Amino acid sequence: MEINPIGIIHSPFAAKETCPIQPLYASGAVGRVEVFDEFAAGLKDIEGFSHIYLLYQLDRAGKVELVRAPFLDDTPHGIYATRHPCRPNGIGMSIVKLIKRENNILTIEGIDVLDQTPLIDIKPYVPKFDCFEAASEGWFAGKQWSSKPAGKE
Ligand SMILES: C[S@@+](CC[C@H](N)C(=O)[O-])C[C@H]1O[C@@H](n2cnc3c(N)ncnc32)[C@H](O)[C@@H]1O
């Protein structure tokens, strides 16, 4: 299997320590998604969506840990029950607000990735497909984030 980037995410975050852990905690964080010219035609009609999914490669993640304590808990959980970057295949996903499109550049808000993160795919967020109001949130229930604990990557 070979996956090649379709673009690059430009964000205000150069270091993990200052990078928000989810778009929910990144309001006001504006970034740019640069889609390579050869894929830009695929952005036709994207302007109609207020939010989009970005799928990307967590290219600076540490070693894979199948069970670990994530950012929001000191108790270890299986990696597939978390959003932590240290996962096999290192794929990250963020739903961000689409502010505008200028040719192959998307200006977005609510970005939680490091600058220069390789972009793998973009999909529109469609509430009638993607929003389940009665969904349960597992161990995340009641957890709130304020800042990254020192030493936790
Ligand atoms: C908890 S992950 C969540 C990412 C995404 N929203 C998800 O759920 O898949 C967000 C954290 O990943 C780390 N991170 C962001 N961009 C990264 C990259 N390119 N490589 C490695 N780690 C990254 C930062 O520490 C950031 O706070």
CATH C-level name: Mainly Beta
Taken from the alpha-carbon principal axes, the silhouette is: globular
Secondary structure tally, helices:
1
Q: Poorly predicted ranges (pLDDT <50, ≥5 residues)? A: none
How would you describe this protein?
The protein is mainly β and 153 residues long. It has a single domain, classed as YaeB-like (Elongation Factor Tu (Ef-tu), domain 3), CATH 2.40.30. It is built from 1 helix and 8 strands, in the order ββββββββα. The strands form 2 sheets. The chain has a 6-stranded antiparallel beta barrel. A two-stranded antiparallel ribbon has the order 4-5. β4 and β5 form a beta hairpin. 20% of the residues are buried. The site of S-adenosylmethionine has 20 residues, from β6.
